[in-house]
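Sequence, please.
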C-alpha cells in the first residue's frame, strides 16, 4: 500500500475481468464500470448482438473487449471460454433469472430453470474462474446475490432459495480459498429497474410494495450496483472477503 494514492486503489489497470450476463441491465453496467477503471473485459451471454454492441462501448474507453457467446448453463462452454482467456483477475458472477410465482403454484420446470441458472451455473462458473485465479495467486470473485438472499420477498420462494444459496456459497468459497490470494464476496441489490424487472415495477401494487420498504427516496439504478461491484473487485477492498455488500436502500434494516 505504501506509495499508493487513494484513487490508485480503485484502478484495475492491467487486469482482465469476466462479467456473465453482460449483455444488458446490471451486467452491462458492471462491464462498463470495470472498463472505465482500467480493466479489459470479457463479456459473456447468449446474445451476440448485445455483446457486440457493448464491446464497442468498452473499446471506446480504450480497453479490450473479449466477446464470449455462451450459455452459463453449458458448463463445458463456460470452462472453455474461461480457460481461453489470456488472464483472469476478476469474475462478476452476474447471470441470473427470476420467475415470480406463488409458492403453491411453483412448477418443476420453473424451479429447475431458475435454480439451474442461479445456483448450478453460478457455482461452476465461480469454480472455473477460481482455478485460474488460484494458479495465478490472486483474484476477486463477486457473486451477484440479492436482498432476497437476506429476507423473504413475496411470490419469490424459488428466487429467495437461490439467493440464500449464493450467500452461503460466497462464505464457503471464501473459507475454502483462504491463503490463495483469491477473495470472494457478494453484492446484494434491492429491486433495480432493468429489462427483467421493468414489468414487475410497472404494476402499481408491486411498486407500492417496493416503495413502502425502501428507506431511500428513489429506486436503485444499475450504476449503484456497478459501483459496489467495482469496490469489491479492486485493491481498495483488499481486506474484504466472505461477506455480502447490501445495496438495498435500507430494505433489510427493518
Amino acid at each position: 500500500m505504501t506509495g499508493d494514492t487513494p484513487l490508485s486503489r480503485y484502478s484495475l489497470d492491467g487486469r482482465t475481468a469476466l462479467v456473465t450476463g453482460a449483455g444488458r441491465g446490471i451486467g452491462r453496467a458492471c462491464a462498463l464500470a470495470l472498463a472505465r477503471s482500467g480493466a479489459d473485459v470479457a463479456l459473456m451471454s447468449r446474445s451476440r448482438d448485445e455483446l457486440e454492441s457493448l464491446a464497442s462501448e468498452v473499446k471506446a474507453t480504450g480497453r479490450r473487449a473479449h466477446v464470449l457467446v455462451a450459455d452459463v448453463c453449458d458448463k463445458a462452454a463456460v470452462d472453455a471460454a474461461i480457460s481461453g482467456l489470456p488472464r483472469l483477475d476478476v469474475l462478476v458472477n452476474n447471470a441470473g433469472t427470476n420467475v415470480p410465482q406463488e409458492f403453491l403454484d411453483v412448477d418443476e420446470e420453473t424451479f429447475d430453470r431458475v435454480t439451474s441458472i442461479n445456483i448450478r451455473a453460478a457455482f461452476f462458473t465461480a469454480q472455473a474462474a477460481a482455478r485460474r485465479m488460484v494458479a495465478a495467486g490472486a483474484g476477486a470473485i463477486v457473486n451477484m446475490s440479492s436482498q432476497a438472499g437476506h429476507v423473504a420477498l413475496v411470490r419469490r420462494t424459488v428466487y429467495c432459495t437461490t439467493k440464500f444459496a449464493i450467500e452461503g456459497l460466497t462464505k464457503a468459497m471464501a473459507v475454502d480459498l483462504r491463503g490463495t490470494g483469491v477473495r470472494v464476496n457478494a453484492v446484494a441489490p434491492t429491486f433495480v429497474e432493468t429489462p427483467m424487472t421493468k414489468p414487475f415495477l410497472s404494476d402499481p401494487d408491486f411498486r407500492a410494495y417496493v416503495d413502502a420498504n425502501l428507506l431511500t427516496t428513489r429506486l436503485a439504478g444499475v450504476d449503484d450496483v456497478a459501483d459496489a461491484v467495482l469496490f469489491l473487485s479492486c485493491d481498495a477492498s483488499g481486506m474484504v472477503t466472505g461477506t455480502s455488500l447490501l445495496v438495498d436502500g435500507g430494505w433489510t434494516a427493518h
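The domain at 7-248 is CATH 3.40.50.720 (Rossmann fold).
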